[in-house]
Amino acid sequence: MNNLRNEKLLVAFGLHLKQLRLKKGLTQEQLAYACDMELSQVYRIEKGKINVTISTLSALAVGLETSIGQLLKDF
């Protein structure tokens, strides 16, 4: 059966996102504000609790001042 919710992948992306956020010197709250999303959503993404949509990836890229491609690169 195909697992659309690959937990290892979600956790790996969450850690990658956290590293990018910290590299930019942002708190979760600052990133959430820049992305126009709830703080709890950023927290859950970084913890690998939720599977993000393309729209969410776009918002995260804007908040981190990067592209979706760079956001997904090397994680």
Explain this structure:
This protein has one domain: 434 Repressor (Amino-terminal Domain), CATH 1.10.260.40. It is mainly alpha-helical and 75 residues long. The chain contains five helices and no strands.
Number of domain units: 1
CATH architecture label: Orthogonal Bundle
Number of helices: 5
The major sheet is characterized as:
none
- Beta-strand share of residues: under 5%
Order of helices and strands: HHHHH
Predict the CATH topology.
Answer: 434 Repressor (Amino-terminal Domain)
Features:
single chain; 75 residues; mainly alpha; 434 Repressor (Amino-terminal Domain); 5 helices
Helix and strand arrangement:
Layout: H1 7-23, H2 28-35, H3 39-46, H4 54-63, H5 68-72
Helix pairs in contact: 2-3, 2-4
In short:
The protein is built from five helices and no strands.
